[in-house]
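By convention, the C-alpha cell line describes the chain's fold. To illustrate:
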Amino acid sequence: QERRPERPGTYFLIGLGMTYMSYSNAEELWGEEFDKESKTGTESDPGLSLGIGVELQLVPGFGVFTDIRYAIDYGEYDVVTYIPVRFGLKFSSKRQGAGR
C-alpha cells in the first residue's frame, strides 16, 4: 500500500491568561535622565493572546509544531505587548489503524 505524505495541519489560538513577571535593577526614564535607583519586584497581570500554529505528523505517533501569538498583558500602570514563538515535538500513544 502506498503511503500518502502527511499534510500540515493549522490551528488558531485565542485565550485569556495570567503572566507573572519578575524584574530587578530596572531603570526608569524620568524626563531626559535615567533614575539609576535599583528597582526589584514581581507583578502578575491578566492578558489576552491571539495566534496561529502549524503541526506536521512525521511518522505515526510523532510530529512537530510551531506557533506564533500576539500577546497583550494589562499591568497596573502600563500595557505590555510581545510576540512569543514556540517550536516543539508532539508525541502520541494513540495506536494508528486499530480495529481495521
Q: What stands out?
A: The radius of gyration is 21 Å. The beta strands are 9-24, 28-30, 33-35, 40-59, 62-74, 79-82, 85-91.
